[in-house]
Specification:
By secondary structure, the chain is of the alpha+beta class. Helices cover 30% and strands 17% of the residues. The structure holds ligand HRQ.
């Protein structure tokens, strides 16, 4: 089995894999570029890390309003293109939330064999199985 050293923090039977704080995601390329511009390393993160790096990006590029710091002006920036808006407020992060749903692909280290027989597991969420490894990829439904 091919092993991805950067993407196996929880064991196959660990129910914490389904805990959103530890669940790992792979950002799609445009988002990955933003995260890496903010200093992110690698291609696989937890949702918490993604949010942290987005915050770093906003700080680094000074996209926030210095007087009303909850406001972010991202028009003309790659972030604005991804979000599809010129500005947003952290008080209403729905553009961020929608963008993350579009741009994060969830990973889990579970094998099909491990979940066979575990009826509570919702197989309908599985989208793609990587035949070369035991890694399965699903679309995020919630964070
Ligand atoms: C840094 C500094 C600021 C000084 C802002 C984003 C909020 C990710 C970062 C987020 C929120 C909700 C969801 C997903 C992501 C569902 C960052 C900010 C800032 N002012 C606003 C900031 O001022 N951070 O929007 N995030």
């Amino acid at each position: 089995m091919a092993s991805l050293s950067t993407s196996a923090p929880c064991s196959t039977s660990d129910s914490a894999c389904r805990n959103s704080a530890r669940r790992q995601v792979r950002p799609k390329l445009p988002l990955l570029k933003i995260l890496q511009a903010a200093g992110a390393q690698g291609e696989i993160f937890t949702v918490t890390e993604v949010m942290h790096h987005l915050g770093q990006y906003i700080t680094m590029k000074q996209l926030y309003d210095p007087r009303e710091q909850h406001m972010v002006y991202c028009g003309g920036d790659l972030l604005g293109e991804l979000l599809g808006c010129q500005s947003f407020s952290v008080k209403n992060p729905s553009p961020l939330y929608a963008m993350l749903r579009r741009n994060l692909v969830a990973l889990t280290t579970a094998t099909t064999a491990n979940f066979r027989g575990k009826s509570q597991f919702q197989e309908k969420y599985w989208r793609r199985q990587y035949s070369h490894s035991a890694y399965l990829t699903v679309q995020m439904h919630k964070f």
